[in-house]
Amino acid sequence: MIWLWLTLFVGVAYAAYKFTRPSRLPPGPKGLPLLGNALDIPLNGLFLKLDEWKATNGEVYALSAAGQKILVLTSAKAAADVLDRISGSCSDRPSFIMMGDIMTGRLMVSGVSHGDKWRRMRRVIHEGFNIRAAEAYYQMQEEEAGRLCRVLLEQPYVQPGVALQRAAASIIWRALYDAPSLFQSHEVEERVNHMNEILDALLSAAMPLAYMVDLIPVMKYIPTSMAKWKAYGERFFKDTDDFFEGLYQAGRLGKGEGGKARGFAATTEEACKQFGVSPQEAAWTAGTLFGAGAETTVGAVHFFCLAMLLYPEAMKAAQKQIDEVCGSHPPTFKDRERLPYVQALLKETMRWRPSVPASIPHVANEEFTYKEWVIPKGTMVIGNVWSMNRDPAFFPDFDKFRPERFLDEKGQVRAPIPDYHDDILAYGHGRRICPGRDFANNTIYVEIAYLLWAFDIEKAKDANGVDITPSDMEFADKGLTVHPKEFPCVFKPRQENLSELLPPI
C-alpha cells in the first residue's frame, strides 16, 4: 500500500509543478486547478470537440491536461507554419507510457521518439514503400480490388464495412509478408483477425485518459504485482513481440511466385542490415505498417461509399470518365493519369471525411517560437485535420462533397494550394508524414476505381420500401481513426457479364 500512496503523492506534486510553471502558450478553454481541461477532453470524437473549441478560442489555442501542455492547430496555414516549416522543433511523439513503453517496448515506429532509432526504421519503410517501390504491388492491388468486387457481387445487399476491411487487410498483408490473399486462406484470416485485435488494443490505449499512468507518469514504477493494468501491458508486449517476429521471419524466408519472396519483409532485408535495424525492430516496423495501412485505407473507402450514396452526381461523373477510358475492362494503374476525376474524387473523400481526423499528435522536442507565443519543450502539438479540411479560407463550401474543387479549368488535377501543405492532410505533416502514403493512395485509388466501374452504389430500402439515407455525421470512433457508422447499401452491377470480368476468389 505504501507504494500506491507514495506514487500518488509524487504524481500530484509533479502535476502541480507542471501546471504552475510559467508559460507563454496561447490562451484556450478555461480548466480546473491541477486537472486543467483533462475532464473536458472526450474519449470519443476528440476532433469534433477540438473544432468546437476553435469557434471560441481561435485557430491556435492551448489546453492543459493534468500539467501536460497541448497546442492545438486548427487551420491549414497554422499547421503548415508549425508542423512543416519548423518541423525540426516538433517532430517527437507523446510518450504514451502504457502504449509506448509497456505494451510496445518503444518499438512501434509511429510512436518512437525522434532520434536515431526512428530515423533507421523510417529509412527502411522508405526503401520498401517509396513511390517507385510501391509500383511492384500494382498487380496484387488490382487482383484484390477485383476480389472485393466479386464478394460484393455475390452479396450485393450489405453493410460494406466488413468486406472493405477484409480487402484493405488482404492488400497490406500480402505486401508485407508475401502471403496468400485473405479471401483465399482461412489461416491467413485467423492471423489477420489477431492482428486487428492487437491494433484495436493499441488504438484504445493511445486515447487521452485511457490509463492514469499517462497522466501521472510516476505510476509506471508501481510493481507489476500491485498493478493489473501493468501486468496486462507486459503480457501484451511479450505475446505481440512473439507474434510479430513469427510473421516477419515467415515473410522473410517465404517464397512467392517464381520462388522469389517479394514482400516488404524479404525485399528490405538488406536495407535493415545497411541501416542497422535489428530483426526485432524490423518485425515491429512491419506490424505497425499493417495497422496503419489497413485502418487508413478502409476508412477512406468506407467514407467513399457513403459519399456515393449521398452525392450520386459525383458517382455518375466518375463513371462517365471511366467508361470513356476503360470501356469493358476494369481500371488499372495504367489508366490513372487518364482518370483525373477519379483522382480528384479520392482527394475530396479524404478531405470531406478524413479517417485520422485529429492526426497523431506531435511533441515539441525543443522550445520554439510561433508568432508571439513561446512553445515549451514537451508540449503536445495536435494538428486537427478535421478543422483544417473545413477551413473556409480554402473551402468556403466545406460541407459539400465536390471533387471538382481539385480540378483545374481543363478538368485535370490541379497543383496543390499554397499554404495548404498537400491535398491530403490525413497523412500528417513534416518529418512525421506517413512514409507509406504512396502505397496507401494506390490502394484507395484502385479500390474506388474498381467499385465505380463495377457497380452503381445505391441506397437500401427499409421494410416499407423507403430509401434509407445514412447520416454523414455519425462515426465509429476507434481512437486515432474513425470510420462512418455502418450503413446498408446496394451494389448494383453495371454490366450483365460482370462475373466473367472479375478475377476468381
TrEMBL record:
Residues 1-15 form the signal peptide. Transmembrane segments: none annotated. GO terms for molecular function: heme binding; iron ion binding; monooxygenase activity; oxidoreductase activity, acting on paired donors, with incorporation or reduction of molecular oxygen. The keyword RNA-binding does not apply. GO terms for cellular component: membrane. The keyword Hydrolase does not apply. Belongs to the cytochrome P450 family. This is Cytochrome P450. It comes from Calocera cornea HHB12733.
